[in-house]
Amino acid sequence: MSGNMLILIALLAIFALLFLVIRTKLHAFVALLLVSLLVGIAAGMPLEGVIESITAGMGGTLGFVAVVVGLGAMFGQMLEVSGGAERLAQTLIKKFGEDRAQWALGLTGFIVAIPVFFDVGFIILVPLVYSLAKKTGKSLLHYAIPLLAGLAVTHSFIPPTPGPIAVADLIGADLGWVILFGSLAGIPSMIIAGPWFGRYIGKKIHVTVPDYMELEKKEYDKELPSFALVTSLILIPLVLILLNTLSDVILPEGSNVRAFLSFMGHPFVALTIATLLAFILLGTMRGYTKEDVQGIANKALEPAGIIILVTGAGGVFKQVLIDSGVGEVLGDKMASSALPPILLAFLIAAAVRVAQGSATVSMVTAAGLMSPLITSMNMEGPVLGLMVIAIAAGATVLSHVNDSGFWLVNRFLGLSEKDTLKSWTIMETLIGVVGFMVVFVLSFFIS
């Protein structure tokens, strides 16, 4: 089949995916599988070959993603139930003081969203925003935007949150580089989109706690864990993964120390250690029974299951593109583009994000489309970490009415749709644009 025909098939597949998700409201998991089947058949693959590609793509992706996302979800749930997120916020606000509470909330969100899902973190911490706004008389946005920015940055940029985990697996990026570059891009993004923009928009739009959201303060049946314990547990997997990456660069191959750090810093091992420590130090040692801990772990896997399946379907889409030959032609065509690959990745993710709303689907789709280009250009090493953040940044910009996050913020802050666009949407766009600018500049120094 000619190259032009394969390109046409790829374009039709993208439009079909967007149509199925947007117009028919078909679940992204089913839509990705259906489009993958159609691509394989249209490209002339044998029918049994299509099935083999689907099996290989799903198995290859879930073999890594399911373990990491599952462990991360259980770790985050234990942190939530034990009151660890509440302790972080209370301590940081006390240390920073009321005048700098914006910075405390931004930093709290930045730390909490590493193990805890974005929406859960916001729901847990929004009572603190209500309390501060009532006490000071300032707009809710003055405090909510920094918190949301901190949560959104790490949710999009720093593993073990599902989005960057999925993209890293699909394009073969090392998680250590993703964590490093995600942090470098995330910190200025959080500062600009959080405290700075929050102070500005809080003066422009004054909103008070909506009547229907008069929440009672959550009561924990046990004393909150210490700040040092919570931060240590969150940092353990990140530090181990980073040490693994750095050992590959610094230590000689065959070194026993390098082999040990590679083992301890593998995401499976690092997250297993952190999760087990959370079960013990936040669970059984603080009065939870083994049955309680098991129930907490089971509950964590409910939302994680959907993310895992969508990511697996993204792996199927990528594999069918490669096995059908569409990926090779698509990769060659993109390689001949005048646009740098990092910019191309950002634009593709942003286009899908605007069209269908879900950041996770945008990341998975963009990663599947960029994978053939990465292969054809023999890209490897640190630059793939930059590529992950570029895709994540593109999938963050321009959140609007087709994104569930838009309506979560709209309801909890009592905003009109217009004011949600002026605050939340601009905040998300600032995060994506600033994050992309950082990795784009870094790409000139890292090959």
Outline of this structure?
With 447 residues, this protein is an all-alpha fold. It is built from 19 helices and no strands.
Report on this model:
With 447 residues, the chain is an all-alpha fold. 79% of the residues lie in helices and 0% in strands. The protein is built from 19 helices and no strands. It has helices at residues 3-22, 28-42, 47-82, 84-96, 101-112, 118-136, 140-157, 162-171, 175-204, 227-250, 256-264, 267-283, 290-324, 326-335, 341-356, 359-376, 382-394, 404-413, 417-443. Helix 9 packs antiparallel against helix 19. The longest helix is centred in the N-terminal third of the chain and has 36 residues, at 47-82.
